[in-house]
Amino acid sequence: MHVVVIGNGVTGITAAITIRKLSATHQITVISSESEHFFSRTALMYVYMGHMQYQHIKPYEDWFWPENNINLQQGQVTYIDVEQKQVLLDDQATLNFDKLLIATGSKPNILNLPGKELNGVQGFYSLNDLQTLEANSKDVNRAVLVGGGLIGIELAEMLYTRCIPVSFLVREEHYWGSVLPKEESQMIQSHILAHGIDLHLKAEVEEILGDASGKVSGVRTKSGEVIPCQLVGLGIGVFPNIDLIRNCGIKTNRGILVNEYLETNIPDIFAAGDCAELEKPDQQKVVEQLWYTGRMQGETVAYSICGTRKKYERGIWFNSAKFFDIEYQTYGKVSARLGPEEGTLLWQHPNRKKSIRINYLLHTQEVIGFNLLGIRYRHEVCERWIREKKTLDFVLKHLKEANFDPEFYRRYEKEVLRKFNEQFTATFALKDKG
Amino acid sequence: MSNHQESLSIGYNYQDETDTIQKAALALFAVGLLLLVLPLFSFNPEVNTFFLWGGTTLSTLALLLYFFRTYQKSHPGVRNNGVWLRGSTSRGKIAWVTAVVLTGFYIILYWFPQYLGNLIEALNPTSQWLRGKPADHWFLYGSFYTLAILVMGVRAILKYRHSPYQIIRTISVMLFQFLFAYLIPAFLMLLNEPEFYFSYFWPLKYDYLFPGTLGYLAKEPGALGVFMVFWSVIISLIGVPILTYFFGKRWYCSWVCGCGGLAETAGDPYRQLSDKSRKAWKYEVAIIYPILGFIVLTTLLLWLNSMLGGWILGSLSNGFSQAYGFFIGAIFSGVIGVGFYPIMGSRVWCRFGCPMAAYLGLLQKHFSRFRITTNGGQCISCGNCSTYCEMGIDVRWYAQQGKPIIRASCVGCGMCATVCPRGVLNLETGPQEGRYMPTNLISPENIRILN
Ligand SMILES: Cc1cc2nc3c(=O)[nH]c(=O)nc-3n(C[C@H](O)[C@H](O)[C@H](O)COP(=O)(O)OP(=O)(O)OC[C@H]3O[C@@H](n4cnc5c(N)ncnc54)[C@H](O)[C@@H]3O)c2cc1C
Ligand code: SF4
Q1: What is the third-level CATH fold of A121-236?
Q2: Mutation target vs A (from B381, B387, B393, B450; most A CBs, 10 A cutoff)
Q3: What pLDDT does residue B337 have?
Q4: Which residue among A81, A349, B151, B351 has its CA within the 20 to 30 Å range from the CA of B303?
């Protein structure tokens, strides 16, 4: 049985390793164009900032692959022949497969605006982008970053460590306004500003300006402001990388359409990770573009490939990030805007950048989500509380168990409880009056 | 026209640029160093004492000024910017020059101390005042060793000021070095008591359990000698296992020990240079345990010998001390252990050579409540933890699988937890049972079972 995996990102590699765990005899070939070995995409920023070198962001040493009999091949797949069960490579070689996993990841979105092709305009996704950024950020007086999400702020931090002044354009009213509630967002904004980053809210680019040599020289925003700059970094999201799949007979929408077993419409061909679009039985379609989901989908699909079909189940939502020095962890459901049935309790440190938010359902008091800034909480504990529908009362009483901060860190449970009590009494007092 | 979208910034903060104050501080440091070596070329003891003290004071203050300025400009948080872009911390030319200078210093110290004669002489008044006897090259070395821990300790505190764990731990190594490995031994000598280090134990200070040493201490007049015997035996054989059971190896290696103290302070800029490969781990196991075995065997033999009236080994004790002291003490812990900081990282001795670390490590692995917990499925395999592990442990290997990290070599410095950008790691103690249990939350298979 020959399994071919296209893409050596976290999805493809987790699948390959899991297949090897499940079966000693499957022949496994991973083809990828970007790099010879698997590296951590999430760590690209640390290479630019000099915290690590490329060799450090490879999660496995090079001996790991031959020792586990996982065959790595660097190359670009140009066509999939679903009839012949063959993939065609850019060097014209062909490779037969019994089962195929497509895990080709994403591509950064491009701004569809005049000037987008100028030198010095770039996204940030691949190793190649890292090299381009290294070149593009030489002799720069100012950089403009577009897009108020995670890649935008990573770019801001990266350029900050190279002493390059940054103007950061965010379309929303608040930083990462589609995900973060206003208070969290404001804390992060003040942190961004404290670094001297030139943050513009409700700002959109209208045109990227260039000089005679075809190099970027500034941007003009919709409000008419012109910001001179020599580098434009785009962090405006990603879309599934499915160029290869078009015209192969594999069904696509935004991404490669797969069912809950991560199977495509063609037998023996699977897709997972950033490039896949999950079609749920209720017709809902989702593309999940996260490291964690890539890892989980990679594992699930390995089971299906090895003949034990498994449904992909996401479990209770979690995510994390870091905004300059502020760590962010989230568990369960905390939306930017509260739902009608939802209540929220928020504690913020009076002068340090720390906050705890607990969301719950108003009628049952069951806790549905946590948002943490500058404080670490235990994944297991939060997950269990949410899964077991623990009430707010219970959670507040046991809050200590969730704390994951290192020893000797100040604990804030008492303050949190006091604050929550105040807020709670106020809520009920209001209700009584009304 | 720009209206509400006007820039909101409060002035760009060039945190990572070396400014005039920093440059001036570095220049003063260089001048201080020059003054410090002048005594090597002059023959007037009084002038030399002046140069030595003047140079030391100037370079210390200049360095402190540099560190204060550096960290004053940056926000509290992980500041490893440029570590792998600068030659000095990524095995570049400056690193090699530093290594050659350091190694050269150790070679002179161990084998040609006569060349340091003037410096030693210049330290005489201090030594007389502190210990009531003339300075020797070990006093010179001890003084600068302690100073290095104190000055670089201040740097570590400033650098890691966002982490109470790192601050407290650093203060601890600074105090243990200054009090227990410097002032108290000196004070004991002043009082004509045996020079004794209360913070060093067998098998690192292997002779502290040798019959010769214990016999000599016990024969000292007064109760202090007997107390020292008691201290040595009780701590080495009972205190170490108990403390390691409750806290892990770290109570010693990164809180008390002087070698660890230097590594955590002066060695901090080099912690990322430790080799994380599997090959290095194989060398580690192949070297460190035989050294421990050797010391245990020798100690047992010496006791047997002493009980049988000396007919097995005669006066081997002396010869042993000299040979071991030369190969392990001088070459390993000094020349390679510290001299190669800028090339091989700060814990080469602790990782490959130290018998105490081996002893503590075995206890930590099999008989301790200590572990580094990983937080559910939050790891993004970035590699910061592994890179900044001074003991060369591939922390990520465990973290990305959601497994707790329980390794004999872990000294519990806590740096992996400090640098992790996702809050994944935590040094914890808890019941031994289930200590190795991985999280349920990495693999969807487990999540399914939970649901
Ligand atoms: C800068 C950055 C930071 C991020 N930070 C986080 C984070 O903190 N947390 C988080 O959850 N997620 C984060 N993400 C998202 C996360 O990295 C992705 O979701 C994840 O890497 C997707 O993995 P994948 O294996 O599906 O795809 P990819 O990692 O994109 O791998 C796909 C591979 O397939 C190769 N490939 C594509 N087409 C072909 C072809 N035709 N032939 C051969 N090879 C091909 C590509 O070259 C690529 O190497 C971040 C992403 C970026 C860019
Ligand atoms: S544990 Fe933290 S530092 Fe280590 S690889 Fe995972 S996310 Fe990175």
Answers
A1: FAD/NAD(P)-binding domain (3.50.50)
A2: B381
A3: 86
A4: B351
